Amino acid sequence: xxxxTYAAQYAASLHDPEAFWAGLAGQLHWFQEPPRPVLSQxxxxxxxxxxxxxxxxxxxxxxxxxVQHGRADQVALVYDSPVxxxxxxxxxRELLDLTSRFAGGLRQLGVGPGERxxxxxxxxPEAVVTMLACARLGAVHSVVFGGFAPHELAVRLxxxxxCVLVCASAGLEFxxxxxxxxxxxxxxxxxxxxxxxxxxxQRDFCPAELVPERDVDFRYLLQAAPVDAVPLDATxxxxxxxxxxTTGRPKGVVRDNGGHAVALKYSMAAIFGMQPGETxxxxxxxxxxxxxxxxxxxxxxxxxxxxxxxxxPVRTPDAGTFWRVIQDHQVRVLFTAPTAIRAIKKEDPxxxxxxQYDLSSLRHLFVxxxxxxPATYAWAGTTxxxxxxxxxxxxxxxxxxxxxPVGLADAPAPRAGSAGHPVPGYNVQIVDESGRPVPAGTTxxxxxxxxxxxxxxxxxxxxxxxxxSSYLDALPGYYASGDxxxxxxxxxxxxxxxxxxxxxxAGHRLSTGEIEELLAAHPAxxxxxxLGIACxxxxxxxxxLVVLKDGYNLPEEQLQQELVAxxxxxxxxxxxxxxxxxxxxxxxxxxxxxxxxxxxxLADGEPFVLPSTIDDPAILDEIRAVLAARGIGxxxxxxxxxx
Length: 643
Ligand code: COA
Ligand code: AMP
Prior knowledge:
It is a single chain. This protein is of the alpha/beta class and 643 residues long. It folds into 2 domains: 6-311 and 391-485, 3-Layer(aba) Sandwich (Rossmann fold), CATH 3.40.50.12780; 509-630, ANL, C-terminal domain (GMP Synthetase, Chain A, domain 3, 2-Layer Sandwich), CATH 3.30.300. It has 19 helices and 31 strands. A 7-stranded mixed beta sheet has the order 5-4-17-16-18-19-20, with helices on both faces. The two termini are 45 Å apart. Residues 638-643 have low confidence and may be disordered. Coenzyme A is lined by residues 146-147, 171, 173, 178, 283-284, 288, 290, 312-314, 336-337, 339-340, 343, 368-369, 506-507, 537, 573-574, 576.
């Protein structure tokens, strides 16, 4: 069959979205085909929904379908764990067997359609089995990144109200053992909602004590009789994934079953150019959207082999580990974050280690999670000898919005610094604050004209109002992404960073608003501002500027230690909050709004226009002096070039 062109697919997707997506839905097996129209509005909320009335099961499509269609003995999942020294392979038949048994075990614990199950585990095959088992039963999983502290887990317990929590007894960060069970117990003590059962996967290097009656051994549940997949409505939720918003309350992004399956299957072929049977590796944690979509669901929906990696790009055991995995598992496409490439480049600038492996299986490197700076882009391309594709998406979209869809013919070639072109289904526009498109080359807000295509969040968990106010109200007729950027005259898009209080630290999305709320709760802090300042390795790191309450004159060193410990304890080490400085006052507009953007530009040594609304410009000079004295920020820190 002739490969469709990018231009033709893109035009078709915008001209008649219903026909376009109905055609792609036909590539999946439905227990009941979705009736036309395939796009309609939810009668209660009025929000757009795809494929209402269709019935399917995502776990069935990921497993049973392939077992019944000739892939039973193909490897579905490779678990490669340099931190434990293990490599395990699971065929589609084996993964189905484990999943249907574990689903049977969960059902014995009372888990049924619509119930929530929280998963707090490292990148383990058992975590994937848990996700697929929930999907099989129609239960809604919510995976919480293992690097989050108990407080974050408790917030999610309260919001999702799960009946079961599934965890591992421990994780491994390099060679450091992180016992998870005490973190779970601490979260349960903090939470208002507690699940009836905690299922524990015992890891032999750090087994946990089980609480009688409440706790169940993961392996015990695997002895249950297998159960069949439950037919679900296309609009039933598959999972909730919490992501940072601009406040301390994370947003529960909901993913449905039908739109998600259709969009992900399409993306595997059109965007990543994957054929069923080939190996795809998203080097992400299952706690993030990338892990959900491209370590678990996308590759399995498409009949690929997925690699689940428990390790880091460096020091597990060295900066050649990614290249070894590509060689050992014949990876066709690697998907990672630019920060991982920067970490490798820092340790092996001349890419000596890459030369020790056979990388000939690799066709493309895809990067996302933050803007890929041109130097990293160039280094990766030269090292790997394959095209590097920067592509843009968010937890909310669940799949790429901008990319170079390498599976479509004649897609414009990728370019350093650009996230490419709109993916079919996404009418991406750069607009001003009143929603008017801006001319090429002008920076504005990155927005997507409604309706969003299948796969994107239909709403936030139990909060349609927050969904509307967060994404739809600011720019009527559009989904507001929260990112800023521009489009050049040739149509390439450039995403330049968030326009709200969200920052990206080593590809992890964090809320400066949440960090501010936690710092402000320290008894000595009168007010504060948290900035995401540029970091050569992690992209951005948070830094706090605090004003002390009158009468508090804590030594600055001690205060910083207390504030750093507070963020580590409440959000987790992953926030990388390591610096706080005391300032006399913060720059504000005359109406009292802290000028965070100006502060960030000041710290990063970027030129900025003095805001006309600033109440006292002299404050900026005071803060510049404090930052310089403390060596905080690009403008002041001694520069150690990477690579
Ligand atoms: N469980 C417990 N702790 C975790 C954790 C987890 N799953 N993940 C990270 N942490 C801890 C780390 O141990 C570290 O703790 P420390 O301050 O006590 O040393 C802290 O959080 C910061 O972690 P990280 O930012 O990962 O730093 P690092 O030095 O361990 O590794 C990189 C740096 C760049 C190698 C790493 O951040 C990385 O691989 N980034 C890529 C991320 C990515 O792929 N993002 C996905 C989206 S596509
Ligand atoms: P997350 O929801 O964690 O996937 O983070 C989404 C955010 O990461 C986006 O809103 C962007 O700010 C940023 N991001 C993701 N991919 C890219 C990219 N290719 N270029 C620039 N920023 C990106």
